[in-house]
Amino acid sequence: MRDQTRLILTALTLLFFGMSSGAAIAQDETALSGANAVALVEKLHEGLEHLMTNAQTLGAEGASDYIAAVVDDTYNLPALTAQSVGPSAFRGYGSEEKAVVVAAYRAFVVSNYLSRFGKPLPISFETVGHSEGPRGSTIVETQLVRQSGDPVQLVYVVAASKDGRSGIADVQYNGVSEAARRRSELSSLARQGANVLADALTKKAAQIAADAE
Question: Which residues does residue 157 pair with via DSSP β-bridges, in sequence order?
Answer without folding.
Answer: 139, 170
